[in-house]
């Protein structure tokens, strides 16, 4: 939704950013009476921290792959964290490059996968503990370090993260398209005539800018991203971890294109999505 995130307290005059605090109450006096002092902006993110300290101790002391108690508590905290996180902050699109968030998605899948394995080996347990040890610091194991039994967990985590990001990509893209239409509607005939006269002189030296994005081309790549994500999901995530990582990187490239208008970012997303699923 779009909100007026820059607020001013009616009672004491304090100004603060809802985008940063996630709180409607004044941080100075506690009043909930405030007015917006800037235009509405799209906002899907909320302040959230991931602290796995207590869970690390419990899992580290377990005699088996999983502790007798506390697994549900870990999954609850992870779900709460990923639920709060979004990718549009005060109208600004973020990348899919937050390793804390990506590790949280993966840890959710790995805990479930280890719990379902009939005979998890030491590599599976070590990987789980390693992920748990570093997830809240953004220490995410490289694709080549994922044990075979947990390839599907890595793949499904990538799908979950990409699908969440894709929704915000789509929303941000539609906002850009709407803004583009509004800008076009505000141009008068004289401005249009001047722009037409300048077309020939500027065409050869034109470069991409933050506003110079191909909306339709982006929609096409966004659809390709959806198709690739659904393909990995249909395989229950059981793909090579490098394939899962490529899916994440393709989504991040598409977001980079929407943020910067750089053609190489869009081309990189296309190239990644053309790679075979293995």
TrEMBL record:
Acidic residues bias (residue ranges): 183-214
Pfam family, one: DUF7117
Domain of life: Archaea
Sequence segments annotated as region (Disordered): 183-217, 259-278
Classification via InterPro entries: DUF7117
Protein name per its UniProtKB record: TFIIB-type zinc ribbon-containing protein
Organism classification: Archaea, Methanobacteriati, Methanobacteriota, Stenosarchaea group, Halobacteria
């Amino acid at each position: 939704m779009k909100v007026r995130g820059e607020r001013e307290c009616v009672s004491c005059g304090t100004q603060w950013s809802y985008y940063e605090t996630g709180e409607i109450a004044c941080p100075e006096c506690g009043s909930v009476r405030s007015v917006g002092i800037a235009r509405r902006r799209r906002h899907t993110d909320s302040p959230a921290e991931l602290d796995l300290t207590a869970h690390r101790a419990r899992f580290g002391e377990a005699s088996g792959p999983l502790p007798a108690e506390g697994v549900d508590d870990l999954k609850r905290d992870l779900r709460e964290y990923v639920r709060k996180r979004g990718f549009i902050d005060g109208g600004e699109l973020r990348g899919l490059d937050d390793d804390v968030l990506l590790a949280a998605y993966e840890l959710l899948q790995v805990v479930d996968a280890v719990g379902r394995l009939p005979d998890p080996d030491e590599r599976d347990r070590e990987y789980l503990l390693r992920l748990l040890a570093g997830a809240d610091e953004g220490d995410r194991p490289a694709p080549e370090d994922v044990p075979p039994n947990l390839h599907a967990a890595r793949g499904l985590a990538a799908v979950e993260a990409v699908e969440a990001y894709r929704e915000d990509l789509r929303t941000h893209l539609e906002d850009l398209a709407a803004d583009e239409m509004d800008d076009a509607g505000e141009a008068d005939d004289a401005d249009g005539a001047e722009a037409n006269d300048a077309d020939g002189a500027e065409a050869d030296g034109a470069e991409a800018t933050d506003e110079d994005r191909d909306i339709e081309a982006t929609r096409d790549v966004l659809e390709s991203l959806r198709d690739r994500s659904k393909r990995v999901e249909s395989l229950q995530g059981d793909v090579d971890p490098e394939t899962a990582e490529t899916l994440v990187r393709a989504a991040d490239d598409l977001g980079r294109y929407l943020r910067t208008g750089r053609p190489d970012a869009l081309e990189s997303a296309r190239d990644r999505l053309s790679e075979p699923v293995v």
